[in-house]
Specification:
Largest interface: A-B, 29 and 20 residues
Pfam families (chain A): ABC_tran
Strand order of the largest sheet of chain A: 6-7-8-3-9-10
Strand order of the largest sheet of chain B: 1-2
Structural class of chain A: alpha/beta
InterPro entries (chain A): AAA+_ATPase (IPR003593), ABC_transporter-like_ATP-bd (IPR003439), ABC_transporter-like_CS (IPR017871), P-loop_NTPase (IPR027417), PstB-like (IPR005670)
Number of strands of chain A: 10
CATH architecture of chain A: 3-Layer(aba) Sandwich
Largest sheet of chain B: 2 strands, antiparallel
Helix content of chain B: over 70%
GO molecular function (chain A): ATP binding
CATH topology of one domain in chain B: MetI-like fold
Distance between the termini of chain B: 60 Å
Shape of chain B: flat
Strand content of chain B: under 5%
Largest sheet of chain A: 6 strands, mixed
CATH architecture of one domain in chain B: Orthogonal Bundle
Radius of gyration of chain A: 18 Å
CATH superfamily of chain A: P-loop containing nucleotide triphosphate hydrolases
Bound molecules: adenosine-5'-triphosphate, magnesium ion
Protein name (chain A): Phosphate ABC transporter ATP-binding protein PstB
Number of strands of chain B: 2
CATH class of chain A: Alpha Beta
Radius of gyration of chain B: 26 Å
Keywords (chain A): ATP-binding, Nucleotide-binding, Phosphate transport, Transport
Distance between the termini of chain A: 36 Å
Oligomer: heterodimer
Structural class of chain B: mainly alpha
């Protein structure tokens, strides 16, 4: 239960323009939290703060605090690569390396210094199983991951993230490039693994948010409008804007 | 009125004329280029095989023989035209210069793409591109006044030789290898790099395990391009290598490459004689080698592309 991630008054500036206007949220272990909101409201920006991927961009200023298990992940004592091992990320476009499936999943453990073939084999197998892709690829682990279908690639990417054994998994519209059947597979993968992780999911798909998330956060123009249990949010939102958005009345 | 409209539609438009005009011009240019290439190949080949057809020199003796003296008669009653010393020397300078240039080029490329800010990398890039424009004779002259004495003071002897040649060639091919390596490294898609960082890799791990791995075919192509240049460079090499046709036994005694022998010899021989034809045979070897390098580049390029597409 120690995998709680929280942000407090998080502000982000691209150059001089403020893209996030003080967001405070708390994500719990064993839950899927959905981040929803119209395009450009800052969901991806917010998500990238959570594992310090915004550090790769120039000219970004971040204020406020982000804590994982009570420790500030932006404190100078924390190493970025250690943080990213604890807070993994799955991207919108499936982006497996153009290596074999095995090498893709083994990438994380290898950079952490795992060399033993047996240990690697084991990690690769369990990760692929957790990502519900093992049965489809187990006979062909040497195959180039780029040759898989988009949905398979995305599940390999999830497996690759799981192989690092993170506490938190960030997913930025992981199914938006996939067909409905592959999307459902990825969704059920997330449902299967959620008890062991703290999952944060950006999605434009309201059905998806209502199907799989425990909590939902609604953002608009860089602000958090409402954050609650998904059921409550979809049936009976506090805020008029939230209900308008959920009913497709704008954005 | 009706008729003229019909005519207008049926007669070819201005664009059609322009298009066929353009087609004719470009086909004409292509034909000229093809004719040029074919005639160069044909010319060098006919000249080059005269040595074997007219003077009855054995091809094996030519490729593997150690003695080069086309103007005197050797032990077997025929002139000796063994090109092996030059072939070996050409390969040696090429390989050594490429071996030094490659790590330099990769280091420069990584610095430019991952470490330097925009201004720094542009500065480095234009410096390197400047090196391309310098004429060979200047490189040779600098080699003669700096590299040869340096080699002499360290290893003794005259200072002329393979090492001096390789060092000069290294500087000459560095820009080619570097700019092609930079292109190859820059073409690695950003999402692979992000994926690697996202998995907790450090910058060096990302460069080493993702960027270099993915750009490897491109880097190999860059190196082979550099080798083609090194193999074919004549003037600068001729100025520092010592021009002595002996099988090289070390890197600091005078030697001679195919190209340096060609430039030294071609002015001093008479067309149609064996001495002259033998030089054409050397040119033929050069031509085959550049063909070989080109094919190698094509193969590596195809392999690299297949990796992405498969
Ligand atoms: N690298 C950047 N530099 C400058 N501004 C940026 C950058 N990335 C995003 N922005 C701006 O920040 C705001 C939020 O963008 P963000 O990508 O986080 O939105 P989003 O909610 O993820 O949208 P979408 O649903 O379309 O993915 C936008 O106004 C965008 O223009
Ligand atoms: Mg986004």
């Amino acid at each position: 239960m120690g995998k709680i991630l929280s942000t407090k008054n998080l502000r982000l500036y691209y150059g001089k323009s403020e893209a996030l206007h003080g967001i405070s949220l708390k994500f719990l272990d064993g839950e899927i939290t959905a981040l929803i909101g119209p395009s450009g409201c800052g969901k991806s920006t917010y998500l990238r703060c959570l594992n310090r991927m915004n550090d790769l961009l120039d000219n970004v200023t971040i204020t406020g605090t982000i804590k994982l298990q009570g420790k500030d992940i932006y404190s100078p004592k924390m190493s970025k690569s250690e943080i990213r091992k604890k807070i993994g990320m799955v991207f919108q476009q499936p982006n497996p390396f153009p290596f074999s499936i095995y090498d893709n999943v083994a990438y994380g453990p290898r950079i952490s210094g795992v060399k033993d073939k047996k240990v690697l084999d084991e990690i690769v197998e369990t990760s692929l199983k957790k990502a519900a892709i093992w049965d489809e690829v187990k006979d062909d682990l040497k195959k180039n991951a780029v040759a898989l279908s988009g949905g398979q690639q995305q599940r390999v990417c999830i497996a690759r993230t799981l192989a690092v054994n993170p506490d938190v998994i960030l997913l930025d519209e992981p199914t938006s490039a996939l067909d409905p059947i592959s999307s459902v597979k990825v969704e059920s993968t997330l449902m299967d693994i959620k008890k062991d992780y703290n999952i944060i999911l950006v999605t434009h798909n309201m059905q998806q948010a209502s199907r799989i998330s425990d909590k939902t956060a609604f953002m608009l123009n860089g602000r958090l409008i409402e954050f609650d249990k998904t059921e409550k949010m979809f049936l009976n939102p506090e805020n008029k804007i939230t209900s308008d958005y959920l009913n497709g009345r704008f954005g | 009125m009706k008729n003229s409209l019909k005519e207008k539609f049926l007669s070819p438009s201005k664009q059609t004329y322009q298009e066929s005009f353009g087609k004719i011009i470009s086909s004409f240019c292509i034909l000229i280029i093809i004719a040029l290439v074919v005639s160069i190949l044909g010319f060098v080949t006919t000249k080059g095989i005269d040595t074997f057809t007219q003077s009855k020199i054995n091809v094996f003796d030519f490729l593997f023989g150690n003695v080069w003296s086309p103007s005197s008669t050797g032990a077997n009653g025929k002139p000796e035209v063994g090109a092996a010393p030059m072939i070996v020397t050409s390969f040696t300078v090429t390989l050594i210069s490429a071996a030094i240039a490659t790590p330099f080029a990769i280091a420069c490329a990584i610095f430019m793409t991952f470490i330097a800010n925009n201004r720094g990398s542009r500065l480095l890039r234009s410096t390197i591109e400047l090196l391309v424009g310098i004429p060979s004779v200047i490189y040779g002259y600098i080699g003669l006044t700096l590299v040869v004495p340096l080699v002499r003071s360290i290893y003794g002897g005259t200072g002329f030789g393979i090492l001096a040649g390789a060092i000069v060639l290294f500087v000459m091919i560095l820009p080619t290898v570097t700019s092609l390596t930079v292109d190859s490294i820059k073409s690695v898609p950003d999402y692979y790099i992000k994926a690697s960082y996202g998995l907790g890799a450090t910058r060096w791990q990302t460069i080493y395990k993702v960027v270099l791995k993915i750009s490897l075919p491109g880097i190999l192509t860059a190196v082979i391009f550099g080798m083609t240049r090194a193999f074919g460079e004549a003037l600068a090499v001729q100025m520092v290598i010592g021009n002595s046709i002996t099988m090289p036994t070390n890197l600091t005694t005078p030697a001679s490459t195919l190209t340096s022998q060609l430039t030294t010899g071609i002015g001093n021989t008479i067309m149609g004689t064996l001495q002259n034809n033998a030089l054409w045979s050397l040119a033929l070897v050069l031509l085959f080698m550049s063909l070989f390098f080109n094919i190698l580049i094509k193969i590596i390029g195809k392999r690299g592309a297949a990796k992405y597409e498969s």
